[in-house]
Amino acid sequence: MRIAKADLVPTDANLLPAYDTFAELGDACLTWCDAVNARRHRATGQTPASRLDIERTTLHILPSEPLALALGEERVVGSDRTISFNAVRYSTPPGYTGARVWCRVVGEELSITARTHSGDLTEIWRHQLSVPGIPQIIDAHYPDHPNGRGVHQPRLRPRSEAEIAFVAIGPGAGRWLKEAGPAGAVRIRAKMARAVELATVMGSDKVDQALGLAAAAGRFADNDLVSILEHLAASKPAGEVVRADEAHSVQSGTIGWQALGQPPQPPAELTAD
Fold this sequence. Notes:
35% helix
């Protein structure tokens, strides 16, 4: 290990460049092994590769399948064809619903291994590692559903009276609730209660429309619903939904800077004749 680290790990001593991927490091390890295993050993006078052929006669045969610990952590594929790993949902190919799979981190990827229909343990998919709130769902894993992700639309199951009252506002409320969680909205229950109060005063239709617009635009702040309702009450067209990003700004511009360096103008009442 000391010799391998000195030759393979980039340091100031060996002047090796950095590896961009783990695959490059793996290739470098294979090349290094081929070189040192073909080099004649000073003490034995033999190459490690030829010595291994002799030692294999006394070695035990490796099991045909790796130990479960080597495959990673065990998970069960849910009815939505996903598994949960570190609070992130990852999709799996069709045919593994209810099956046990094993997940392990390989570099910056999540490797999912399962037993195929032929009985062999095989890696069935690799995902880029993600963070909670950003599931990794592959459309190709759902060929029997429109747009691939139709199966992943969560079903609303209101239980408390407050949840039932909110969902009863209309389909816009349902869309708002489905989008609020993945978007990282906070104080959801308080905002739901506020929407129910507004629906009692202003009518369910208007509040439902505003909730639908808020869900489409990704607006889940405390005062967003009231702001949208005021916009609708002013009879302004809703127009195209625009998500705020780096290409949009609410700054008023720099036209006010034109007065910089100019002599001050006298007040209007002093210039009147």
